[in-house]
């Protein structure tokens, strides 16, 4: 098999040949068809997330075909599956036992503490892979596996309000905006100043208002979701939400949040973060996405160009999601 491998933070990934993997008990070997590139991969490569296994194959938005199944496995070879960030949980900690496996004390994360999908093949714990029988296009489905799933969990955390602000209009936002429209909500899209391509994408997906993150929306929002890793957006979003409104931080990493006056939190406004996902989130979202007619905007790179895809994500050079194809 071939893989793009990280040996140390801040270094480019290296293309390597490795022996073909073997599925252990409860595991599957999957031939990767597509793996989307997430901002979290950038935070791993750039050393913002400090505990990756090394060397590491990044990538946690994997779509592929089951090639072999370990002892006791139930998934049949030939079946298309998706493999997300949540790669394993302990099943016995207090969080796992109360339906909050996303907060597990002893988790495994695909492309961070386990090898991921920037490769031709990946080994996964079968219990954390999801059949994608209804999804015929692996490239289009790949961004659903994190941008979609984390976006969905973020939207659930935002509550039932009608007016939803989205800060940072990248891969997660472009998926979740479509879900909001499907649910009859109004999307207020905030982008970097002058990012006309992102603003056009937001408008095309049904946003009722599009502006820069410096601007105030025309009406107070019921909730705001921040996908950009920019702490300055937290006070901006607090100022944009109405009394009782929630500000949901959807990323795994964010720059420091500046000091702000208590008055903008007052009125039972809340700030929340979203950590990882549960398998229940994935089952819900993968059922909802086709019903909501979610489509993804993708830019395809050959696997060997993973470094270029990461650079382009860092620089904001494409809309939607980058997807690697082996
Ligand atoms: Zn646990
Ligand atoms: Zn991700």
UniProtKB/TrEMBL annotation:
Question: Which Gene Ontology MF annotations are present?
Answer: alcohol dehydrogenase (NAD+) activity; metal ion binding
All copies of the Alcohol dehydrogenase-like N-terminal domain together span 24-132
Q: Which InterPro entries does UniProt cross-reference here?
A: ADH-like_N, ADH_Zn_typ-2, GroES-like_sf, NAD(P)-bd_dom_sf
SUPFAM superfamilies named among the record's database cross-references: GroES-like, NAD(P)-binding Rossmann-fold domains
Q: Which UniProt keywords apply?
A: Metal-binding, Oxidoreductase, Zinc
- The name this protein goes by in its record: Alcohol dehydrogenase
Keyword GTP-binding included in the entry's annotation: no
- Source organism lineage? Bacteria, Pseudomonadati, Pseudomonadota, Alphaproteobacteria, Hyphomicrobiales
Origin organism is: Ciceribacter naphthalenivorans
Entry keyword annotation includes Zinc? yes
- Entry's Gene3D superfamilies? Medium-chain alcohol dehydrogenases, catalytic domain, NAD(P)-binding Rossmann-like Domain
Q: Which family does it belong to?
A: Belongs to the zinc-containing alcohol dehydrogenase family.
Give the required cofactors.
Zn(2+)
Which Gene Ontology cellular component terms are annotated? cytoplasm
Return any one Pfam family short name.
Answer: ADH_N
Q: Which NCBIfam families match?
A: adh_fam_2 (TIGR02822)
- What highest taxon heads this organism's lineage? Bacteria
């Amino acid at each position: 098999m071939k893989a793009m491998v990280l040996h140390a933070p801040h270094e480019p990934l290296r293309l390597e040949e490795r022996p073909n993997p073997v599925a252990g008990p409860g595991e599957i070997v999957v031939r990767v068809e597509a793996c989307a590139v997430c901002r979290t991969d950038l935070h791993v490569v750039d050393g913002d997330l400090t505990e990756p296994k090394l060397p590491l194959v990044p990538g946690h938005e994997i779509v592929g075909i089951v090639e072999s199944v370990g002892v006791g496995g139930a998934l049949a070879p030939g079946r298309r599956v998706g493999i997300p960030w949540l790669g394993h949980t302990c099943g016995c900690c207090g969080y796992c036992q109360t339906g909050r496996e996303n907060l597990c004390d002893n988790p495994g994360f695909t492309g961070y503490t386990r090898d991921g999908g920037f490769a031709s093949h990946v080994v996964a714990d079968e219990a954390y892979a999801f059949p994608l029988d209804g999804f015929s296009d692996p490239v289009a489905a790949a961004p659903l596996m994190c941008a979609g799933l984390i976006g969905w969990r973020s939207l659930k955390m935002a509550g039932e309000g009608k007016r939803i602000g989205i800060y940072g209009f990248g891969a997660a936002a472009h998926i979740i905006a479509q879900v909001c429209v499907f649910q009859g909500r109004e999307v207020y899209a905030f982008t970097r100043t002058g990012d006309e391509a992102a603003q056009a994408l937001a408008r095309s997906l049904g946003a009722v208002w599009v502006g820069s993150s410096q601007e105030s929306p025309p009406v107070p929002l019921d909730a705001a979701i921040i996908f950009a890793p920019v702490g300055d957006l937290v006070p901006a979003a607090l100022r944009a939400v109405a009394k009782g409104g929630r500000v949901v931080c959807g990323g795994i990493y964010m720059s420091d949040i500046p000091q702000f006056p208590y008055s903008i939190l007052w009125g039972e406004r809340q700030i929340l973060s979203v950590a990882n996902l549960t398998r229940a989130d994935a089952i819900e979202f993968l059922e909802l996405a086709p019903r909501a007619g979610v489509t993804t905007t993708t830019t395809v790179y050959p696997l060997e160009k993973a470094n270029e895809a990461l650079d382009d994500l860092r620089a904001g050079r494409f809309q939607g999601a980058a997807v690697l194809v082996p």
